[in-house]
């Protein structure tokens, strides 16, 4: 009997490792889910002098995409965000702790998927939203409640699973 | 052209590995000497072609061939040549190619150094290694081809991860892999033993030096990784219980247990099935480590290969290699070997204790590392297991282990007199107690853990000295003692040094995190640090803000440190390059934080007492491994291959 023990233990371990392949260890549920979107009032990158608050977007579901010009991973989701924007999804960008000038230059160069981008220079809004890194994307519904959060680049697969059902199927 | 040659060479190597993994087995089964003789040339040929492939990739990196995807992603034209070379294994694809190169290298070494093995044993050992190589070459070719091209190639590369641009990272992966892969030789010996049915003291003697050398490399690899983290991550931490670190610690713990079990098997012919199990488990844990890191199952710095296809392949390979060998183990279970006949107090019983504690420590590390995965897979949510868990469960197991390390080498085999043993140990005990009180007092107060740690460290060192003294008393000239004995002594002394280092730096490290303007000062551990400002300083592929910090030591000597904050040109990524001044009694460590406007910076200064003892201890342990593996009895012809007279008892 005891000669089979190592094999049995290994089989159990293998099962867990297999299951682990389909799980994302970085996908931590946000405590904000189901709660009102944290407020901020931040300058709008594209229109100097203007500010934006989450309350301004009430009445329609929208995405908050946290990014930064230095972030290479954010480029990977850029094409998909452009698709989403083209399909009519309202995406607001949050430039997290990086220079507004850089962000403006980059968006001019590669095209902007954002309805508008706010500039979180000191990262305070990022703290309120529980941002741990870039990119992160939040879904806020028409009533101003946070409904979903994804850490890491957004793609069609993640979108279809986490966001589209909450947006009544809206998307590319 | 060159990358395609490399790719082609890799395919030929795979074919040779298939030959090496099949024909010799058939030969060993039927006793066909010609089939068995295929193993050696196939192994050497495989090594040559893998080396060619590796050379081709290294060439692509050195010549900045950005049409190769791997080069474009991981190198940069401004990158210094040495880092362009090491970028060869800085990526997932390259590091797997390095893995395969190491495996082929170990196999080739085996064909040269192990000429005296019985033909059938050699054929089976090389056959097993051939099969492992088939698995990994297949992995590289099918999922991680490092020679993939980009059309059109970009004008410049994306640069190597700045964190990896450090001498510690240049050497850490090759050493670690030499260790991981080296255990495949032990594993192959275990399977060959199970297949051939020959599992005796001679088997242990063939296996032991290879295991010890693999262990030596793994020790160096882990120590280099820790040294790198200490210097590069900018906050002076040297061990984080991070999943990737645990992934290397687990095979190390199993390998350490294996080395000791092999000692019993070689001398006494006991612990046979246990030793075999450890041999399989050690390599299994090396593969598990590779899987955990390469699949991204556990989030970590290294999880850059987060790709289920790759993970699935390695998992399948893991299942085949480990599942297959455990099945073979169950079917050919060798039983307990000779009936155990040893007293309660004997070298055997202490080594049994050593193994039990090491395996228990291993189990706690494994549980902590995989626990988040278990819970997540069962749908119980996300948790993370951090240092508090590991510190709380690991150290209570290690403390008695360290105590045994001081006693074991002085205890005779079979049966020891407890009274005589106590007589030999009274001086180490008294010395350890004295130092354990004096040293912490000198460092700012008695802390229970510091006293315990220093006691155990000095206790081990005292045991080593008593061992030498006992040998002298029997009239042996120290330098004439077998290098196996020297190896054990040096490795144990290294362990003692390591324990003292860990204890003191954990208990008495001090730090200050301050805002400093030009001319400001901060005092720490009797040293005065004066900030003299920071200025721009261009590097090869980055620009740095380089600060000047003048330090006045308690004895009045003056030294200048230059911590840097770098911004890398290709990615814009920022990096903190700490300035470290190392001395025997500890390090002064200064790192530059954020620029706070004007000429002010946030600056962190640390005093790390005895931290250098950590790396010195690990180096001594590795040296001990080298000495032990070079013992004459592993090289002498068969007739002289008798175990030398027991010197420690």
Draw up the topology in text:
The complex is a heterodimer of chains A (172) and B (649).
Chain A (H helix, E strand, L loop, with lengths): L4 H17 L20 E2 L7 E2 L9 E6 L4 H15 L4 E6 L3 H11 L5 E5 L3 H5 L7 E5 L5 E6 L4 H8 L9
Chain B lengths: L1 H19 L2 H8 L2 H4 L2 H24 L6 H6 L6 H6 L5 H22 L5 H25 L23 H30 L4 H32 L10 H26 L3 H24 L12 H24 L15 H31 L9 H21 L10 H25 L5 H26 L9 H26 L1 E7 L4 E4 L2 E12 L3 E11 L5 E4 L2 E5 L5 E4 L1 E5 L2 E10 L5 E9 L1 H19 L20
Antiparallel strand pairs in B: 1-10, 2-3, 3-4, 4-5, 4-6, 6-7, 8-9, 9-10
Helix pairs in contact in B: 1-4, 1-8, 2-8, 4-7, 7-8, 7-9, 8-9, 8-13, 9-10, 9-12, 10-11, 10-19, 11-12, 11-14, 12-13, 14-15, 15-17, 16-17, 17-18, 18-19
The major β-sheet of chain A equals:
5 strands, mixed
Can you write the helix and strand succession of chain B as a string? HHHHHHHHHHHHHHHHHHEEEEEEEEEEH
CATH superfamily of chain A: Glutaredoxin
Alpha plus pi helix count of chain B:
19
CATH class of chain A: Alpha Beta
What structural category do the secondary elements of chain A indicate?
A: alpha/beta
How many domains of chain B? The number is 3
Q: Report Rg of chain B.
A: 26 Å
Give a written overview of the molecule:
The complex is a heterodimer of chains A (172) and B (649). Chain A is of the alpha/beta class and 172 residues long. Chain A has one domain (34-167): Glutaredoxin (3-Layer(aba) Sandwich), CATH 3.40.30. Chain A is built from five helices and seven strands. In chain B, strands 2, 3, 4, 5, 6 and 7 form a six-stranded antiparallel sheet that branches. In chain B, strand 4 (542-552) and strand 5 form a beta hairpin. Chain B folds into three domains: 1-160, no CATH class; 169-336 and 348-378, no CATH class; 510-612. Helices cover 61% and strands 11% of the residues of chain B. Chain B starts with a helix and ends in a 20-residue tail after the last helix. Chain B is of the alpha+beta class. Chain B has helices spanning 2-20, 23-30, 33-36, 39-62, 69-74, 81-86, 92-113, 119-143, 167-196, 201-232, 243-268, 272-295, 308-331, 347-377, 387-407, 418-442, 448-473, 483-508, 611-629; strands at 510-516, 521-524, 527-538, 542-552, 558-561, 564-568, 574-577, 579-583, 586-595, 601-609. Chain A binds chain B through residues 3-4, 6-7, 10-11, 13-14, 16-23, 25-29, 70, 72, and chain B through 158, 277, 280-281, 284, 291, 295-299, 308, 311-312, 315, 318-319, 322-323, 326-327, 329-330, 333, 370, 372-374, 376-377, 381-382, 571-573.
